[in-house]
């Protein structure tokens, strides 16, 4: 899911064959008025005192959160409020805001066509919840949220509770999302007005050991659903999941002035299919690593050459016109694509055909979804089809924005064996 605001335009989830440009920032209707709850000082102090006195450093922890998979939406569980109530929040590296739907939000303003029964947040049921007096709007490609900013205790088993600001949405246009809400894992600069990103809040309050997280999406079961995934916060688990070394990819600053980190965006210098001797050069191109996107999207000027470079006879124009269907038995480890990240393209990550198979394409029995799509513009977004095939670590370098030195590292999973390996 890709965030847009007055400083940045970006893109995110859309239909595979929808090749639209990024949505422009647009004015949204004002959030509904929500009654302000008067809280007892002692109730607020139960959790919010952590703003003043952070948890001692020796209590900071690393925690593993099981990943839930629902219709290719990936979420983890948090408890919110006092007494705590459980919520499943989609984790999104393409944005920085946390939101939950307000319990009074109507089906018109907070549609839900996902089939997932959402648990909506009711601030009157939490002794530690309060509104901050700020109303805010967040616009993404494919949807938007709006509402008052709330503050409450968040809980994860094994960690000290922390105070978290979030949008108590009275408008949520992500009707297909199979989760109760979302929390962004990008950088604080793009968090919605009046809110802190979750990693930032946990770091300031001394809850996490380090400003990093790791993602293992798990294995595919017989129903083609991911299971056994783990989101590690405060540390990473590459020793458990990675077959050999990690490839480190530096993250670049991308706001208009070039002085702020926004999302997990890196240089993309080249793409090489195994059926071609020469790499496709992509100078001065950037790629966003986005857990909220269900696609590997490359710029329109590159996607046709990418398919040709695989040497499989696949033609992107024919695929778009429904004249060529890709069958899952064609997705095997005899072919691959290598992405050259970094300014010089020397940070190389290779994905094999069997790692890119996505069964369930409705055009024919046994068909797989096309592995790459045109982005509809001059940008690149690498989402879960890439990230599920790898173990990834995401590191700010510091909890202090002035000392950020972020990078993403990718490692091949222990279980995968390319053709010819023993």
TrEMBL record:
PROSITE patterns: PEPTIDASE_A1. GO terms for molecular function: aspartic-type endopeptidase activity. One of its GO terms (cellular component) is fungal-type vacuole. GO terms for biological process: proteolysis. Residues 74-405 form the Peptidase A1 domain. It comes from the Eukaryota. It holds the Pfam family Asp. Belongs to the peptidase A1 family. PANTHER family: BETA-SITE APP-CLEAVING ENZYME, ISOFORM A-RELATED (PTHR47966), PEPTIDASE A1 DOMAIN-CONTAINING PROTEIN (PTHR47966:SF68). This is Pepsinogen c.
């Amino acid at each position: 899911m890709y965030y847009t605001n007055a400083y940045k335009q970006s893109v995110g989830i859309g239909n595979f064959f929808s090749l639209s440009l990024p949505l422009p920032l647009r004015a949204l209707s004002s959030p509904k008025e929500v009654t302000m709850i008067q809280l007892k000082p002692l109730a607020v102090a139960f959790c919010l005192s952590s703003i003043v006195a952070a948890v001692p450093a020796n209590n900071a922890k690393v925690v593993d959160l099981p990943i839930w998979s629902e219709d290719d939406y990936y979420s983890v569980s948090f408890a919110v409020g006092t007494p705590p109530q459980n919520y499943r929040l989609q984790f999104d590296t393409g944005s920085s805001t946390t939101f939950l739907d307000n319990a009074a939000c109507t089906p018109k303003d907070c549609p839900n066509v996902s089939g997932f029964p959402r648990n909506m947040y009711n601030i009157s049921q939490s002794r530690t919840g309060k509104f901050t007096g700020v109303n805010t709007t967040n616009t993404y490609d494919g949807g938007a949220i709006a509402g008052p900013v709330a503050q409450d205790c968040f809980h994860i088993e094994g960690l000290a509770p922390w105070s978290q600001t979030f949008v108590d949405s009275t408008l949520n246009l992500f009707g297909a999302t199979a989760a109760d809400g979302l929390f962004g894992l990008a950088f604080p600069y793009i968090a919605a007005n009046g809110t802190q990103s979750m990693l930032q809040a946990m770091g300031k309050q001394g809850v996490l050991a380090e400003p990093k997280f790791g993602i293992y999406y798990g294995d595919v079961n017989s129903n083609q659903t991911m299971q056994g995934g783990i989101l590690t916060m405060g540390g990473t688990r590459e020793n458990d999941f990675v077959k050999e070394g990690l490839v480190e990819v530096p993250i670049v600053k991308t706001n208009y002035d070039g002085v702020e980190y926004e999302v997990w965006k890196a240089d993309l210098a080249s793409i090489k299919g195994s059926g071609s001797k020469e790499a496709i050069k992509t100078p001065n191109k950037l790629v966003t690593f986005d857990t909220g996107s269900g696609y590997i999207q490359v710029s329109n000027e590159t996607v046709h050459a990418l398919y040709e470079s695989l040497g499989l006879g696949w033609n992107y124009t024919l695929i778009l016109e429904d004249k060529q269907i890709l069958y899952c038995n064609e997705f095997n480890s005899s072919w691959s694509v290598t992405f050259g990240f970094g300014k010089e393209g020397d940070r190389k990550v290779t994905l094999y055909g069997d790692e890119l198979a996505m069964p369930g394409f409705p055009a024919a029995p046994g068909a797989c979804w096309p592995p790459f799509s045109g982005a509809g513009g001059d940008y690149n977004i690498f989402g879960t089809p890439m990230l599920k095939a790898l173990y990834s670590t995401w590191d700010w370098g510091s909890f202090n924005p002035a000392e950020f030195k972020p990078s993403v590292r990718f490692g091949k999973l222990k279980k995968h064996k390319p053709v010819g390996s023993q």
